[in-house]
Design a protein that fits this description.
By secondary structure, this protein is α/β, with parallel strands linked by helices. It has two domains: 12-268 and 474-494, Aldehyde Dehydrogenase, Chain A, domain 1, CATH 3.40.605.10; 273-464, 3-Layer(aba) Sandwich (Aldehyde Dehydrogenase, Chain A, domain 2). The protein is 40% helix and 19% strand. It is built from 16 helices and 20 strands. The chain has helices at 12-19, 58-77, 80-96, 98-109, 113-132, 171-184, 199-211, 225-234, 247-258, 283-295, 312-328, 347-362, 397-400, 416-423, 439-448, 483-487; strands at 24-26, 29-31, 38-43, 48-54, 142-143, 150-158, 161-165, 188-192, 218-220, 240-244, 263-267, 273-276, 307-311, 366-369, 387-390, 407-413, 431-435, 453-456, 475-476, 489-497. A seven-stranded mixed β-sheet has the order 14-15-16-13-12-17-18, with helices on both faces. The termini are far apart. The structure holds adenosine-5'-diphosphate (ADP) and magnesium ion (MG). Residues 165-167, 192, 194-195, 224-226, 229-230, 233, 245-246, 249, 252-253 line the site of adenosine-5'-diphosphate.
């Protein structure tokens, strides 16, 4: 019997977009890099170039920062209600071009179109709308100082020119997550998307102009980390850098930012524990959550639940269930409707993950399932089978380091004290999950786990209203929620002598 797989048809608008050589957005104009250099962005499902993009470097960053500086005072002085209207119009255009944006994301990153279209683009739009509402809600305070005859109050002012340096795993969402609060607070921005996935950021740049956001308020400089990214993080004209990416690069950015005391917010790596207690009500639901905690986005997720701790009483049952379900997952091109897991982002990332699998094998851990690159019709792309290791030593490299791929390590534990110590043993502290029916235990665990976010009987939920960020080497500062508005504003205290 023939089976056919429904495949998303690429829209005319996307085809046309990919035929154009993509330029930098500086001061409302689309310019080639000053050197004329370009680079190809590849489709990770095929390994073939999708499109050529300008390779911006320090000179282009200078031009973009200068444009952002020129646009700053007028944008900061734009009435809050008008900034709201412009950001809502931007969100409306994202909605109008939803299919196109989701297709670009799938082509550039490889992820299932189903997820890009039904989840991620909605998340990005939801964030833009949430931040669109903030300009009219920013407030200062007055203070009951004890010295008589003073009126003391605070004002929230924009920080200035901001830089956003974003990763390739959720490029559209990460761009929205930084553009929204930066512009809402009256800052101007230079966005440098990851070199692996520049396309949705460029399309967002077009939509921002179409929405009427003034030239220079949002600039997009595509290019590499060590050139464009480094130039932004060293630039004296940049007042704040918002970065999402690896812990290693986060450290370099924080060092660079120190030169001029830039504000920095960092969303970095993780090795997040997901802990299943044997009192879980529904074992299948818990196993299913654990499955998606690691395998969604092919494991290329900062909050991936890459360390699964299972209490002894349910360990065998959970491991068996996980192996069965992982085997059923369909790995394939993101444009095919049946695909659960797309390819990894690049040949380098595939090689890196394969290296970890090899290290895991040699460490004496048991490879339960997966481990191999997929061939046949998938041979040109960077496809890897979902991989599960059991009997992993706590100090093994695969148990301690962020792999950023579809590789799960499963550990057995006996009791609460033990699992807290083991879960908290790493320098990371991004996310954690706990499954239990015991209410007191759930709250005890939430209080004691070293993580910026703890999910109880769920995993990987986000909302623009809820703050997110990491402890320890997982980050600095919080994004989302009202808290991010603090990160994109300066607080000024005003003393007035009242005679
Ligand atoms: P990954 O290792 O997963 O590719 P990175 O942390 O290297 O993640 O990349 C995240 C973002 O940081 C990308 O936009 C990348 O270009 C940028 N980047 C990489 N190196 C530097 C650097 N030295 N300075 C500034 N930005 C950088
Ligand atoms: Mg690409």
């Amino acid at each position: 019997m023939m089976t056919t797989t429904a495949t998303t048809e690429i829209s005319h608008a996307v085809t046309e977009f990919l035929q154009r050589e993509q330029r930098l957005l500086i001061d409302g104009e689309w310019l080639p890099a000053q050197t004329g250099a370009t680079f190809a962005t590849l489709n990770p499902a095929t390994g073939k170039p999708l499109c050529y993009v300008a390779a911006g470097d320090a000179a282009d960053v200078d031009a973009a920062v200068a444009a952002a500086q020129r646009a700053l005072s007028a944008w900061a002085a734009t009435p809050p209600a008008q900034r709201e209207r412009l950001l809502h119009r931007f969100a409306d255009l994202m909605e109008t071009h939803k299919e196109e944006l989701a297709q670009l994301e799938t082509l550039d990153n490889g992820k299932p179109f189903r997820v890009a279209y039904n989840v991620e683009i909605n998340v990005a739009i939801g964030q833009m709308r949430y931040y669109a509402g903030w300009p009219t809600k920013l407030t200062g305070e007055t203070y009951a100082v004890s010295s008589p005859g003073f009126h003391v109050y605070t004002r929230r002012e924009p920080v200035g020119v901001c830089a956003a340096i974003t990763p390739w795993n959720y490029s559209l969402v990460m761009a929205a997550q930084k553009i929204g609060p930066a512009l809402a607070a009256g800052n101007t921005l230079v966005l440098k998307p990851a070199e692996q996935t520049p396309l949705t950021a460029l399309r967002l740049g077009e939509l921002a102009l179409e929405a009427g956001i003034p030239p220079g308020v949002l600039n997009v400089v595509t290019g590499f980390g060590h050139t464009a990214g480094a130039a932004l993080s060293h630039h004296p004209g940049v007042a704040k850098v918002a970065f999402t990416g690896s812990t290693e690069v986060g450290k370099a950015i924080q060092r660079a930012a120190a030169e001029t005391i830039k504000r920095v917010s960092l969303e970095l790596g993780g090795k997040s524990p997901l802990i299943l207690f044997d009192d879980v009500e529904d074992l299948d639901a818990a196993a299913e959550a654990a499955l998606w905690a690691i395998f969604s986005n092919s494991g290329q997720n900062c909050v991936a639940g890459s360390r699964l701790f299972v209490q002894a009483g349910i360990y065998d049952a959970v491991l068996e269930r996980l192996a069965t379900r992982a085997q059923q997952l369909v790995v394939g091109p993101g444009l095919e409707a049946s695909t659960d897991l797309g390819p990894l982002i690049s040949a380098e990332q595939l090689a890196r993950v394969q290296r970890y699998i090899e290290i895991g094998r040699r460490s004496g851990a048991t490879l339960v399932i997966g481990g191999e690159r997929l061939g046949g019709r998938l041979a040109d792309g960077y496809f890897l089978a979902p991989t599960i290791f059991a009997h992993v030593a706590d100090n093994a490299a695969i148990a301690c380091e962020e792999i950023f791929g579809p590789v799960l390590s499963v550990f057995r534990f006996e009791d609460e004290e033990e699992v807290i110590a083991r879960a908290n043993a790493l320098p990371f502290g991004l996310a954690a999950g706990v499954w239990t029916q015991n209410l007191s235990r759930a709250h005890r665990m939430a209080a004691r786990l070293k993580a910026g976010v703890v999910w109880i009987n769920t995993y990987d939920w986000f909302d623009p209203a809820a703050p997110f960020g990491g402890m320890g080497e997982s980050g600095l500062g919080r994004e989302l929620g009202r808290q991010v508005m603090d990160a994109y504003t300066e607080l000024k205290t005003v003393w007035v002598k009242v005679e």
